[in-house]
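Backbone-to-sequence.
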């Protein structure tokens, strides 16, 4: 059965843009000792923009941009959308036909073949690193400014690197501070690389982070938190967050998240505001006092 105080708290939450799927979750909120946050779309807005592009000498930028559009048109990843918006500086992407033989590699990027050339666009996991590469200095500098790097490879040779910046949500810093003041442990889980993860974690005030996460790595991180803390919350938005949302004692999805994240979560923040999650903690406290 559900207490009147709980029922009232659920309806109050709904009016304020927080969808709580069961009263039990609201009651348990007060017990949360640790929160794991996804990065892209959760701590950040999730709408990256291209800020830099570096082309290997001897390569043609327009050809590279055209390949990117041909391949990324088939992807709905925010990085793909950002690169297609950026392509407008060089060509009309609506006139470029998407390639049919494109493959998405989860947590890594996309690959396709053109006239016997293998093109790959994604992160470091997608290609073999060479020691003496032309882009290393630029890549390192970009990562340190919290930018995400995308590598464009032709036959396993990096022909371009692209940097993208995703803004941190306006209320992220304040929310993290509040959780810390409540004595809650926080950690960021991200598919992004180590250095970018470190830079973002530093910007938002998180001391702990796990980088280069595949979806199952997020689950592992959750389980390891649960060894130390009784009640662990996970906040995310992506398909890749769904398994971790299910593993957490309380799963929270951003309203703009993917369907599977919204379905898996116990709580949905309709307006994508972490500040609302802080409100919910306070509401839970008041409610538990009444009960
Ligand atoms: P996240 O939401 O943390 O970025 P994802 O699992 O969606 O996690 O992706 C992990 C990484 O895989 C991305 O950060 C990116 O480096 C790479 N990636 C995935 N899809 C694409 C794509 N369409 N184009 C380029 N890179 C991609
Ligand atoms: Mg995300």
């Amino acid at each position: 059965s559900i207490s009147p105080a709980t029922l009232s708290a659920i309806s109050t939450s709904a009016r304020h843009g927080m969808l709580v799927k069961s009263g039990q979750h609201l009651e348990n909120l007060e017990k949360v000792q640790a929160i794991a946050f996804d990065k892209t779309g959760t701590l950040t807005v999730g709408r990256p923009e291209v800020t830099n592009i570096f082309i290997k000498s001897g390569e043609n930028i327009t050809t590279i941009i055209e390949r990117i559009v041909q391949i990324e048109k088939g992807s709905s990843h925010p990085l793909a959308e950002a690169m297609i918006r950026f392509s407008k500086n060089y060509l009309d992407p609506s006139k470029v036909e998407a390639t049919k033989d494109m493959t998405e590699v989860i947590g890594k990027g996309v690959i396709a073949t053109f006239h016997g050339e293998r093109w790959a666009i994604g992160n470091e996991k997608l290609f073999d690193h060479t020691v003496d590469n032309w882009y290393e200095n630029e890549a390192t500098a970009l990562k340190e400014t919290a930018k995400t790097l995308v590598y464009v490879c032709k036959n396993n040779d990096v022909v371009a690197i692209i940097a993208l910046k995703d803004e941190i949500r306006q209320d992220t810093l304040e929310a993290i501070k509040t959780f810390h003041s409540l004595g809650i442990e926080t950690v960021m889980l991200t598919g992004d690389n180590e250095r970018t993860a470190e830079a973002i974690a530093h910007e938002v005030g998180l001391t702990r982070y796990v980088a280069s996460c595949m979806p199952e790595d997020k689950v592992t991180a959750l389980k390891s938190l649960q060894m130390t803390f009784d009640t662990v919350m996970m906040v995310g938005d992506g398909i890749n967050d769904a398994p971790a949302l299910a593993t957490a004692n309380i799963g929270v999805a951003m309203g703009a998240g993917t369907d599977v994240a919204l379905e898996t979560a116990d709580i949905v923040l309709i307006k994508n505001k972490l500040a609302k999650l802080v409100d919910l903690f306070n509401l839970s406290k008041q409610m538990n006092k009444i009960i």
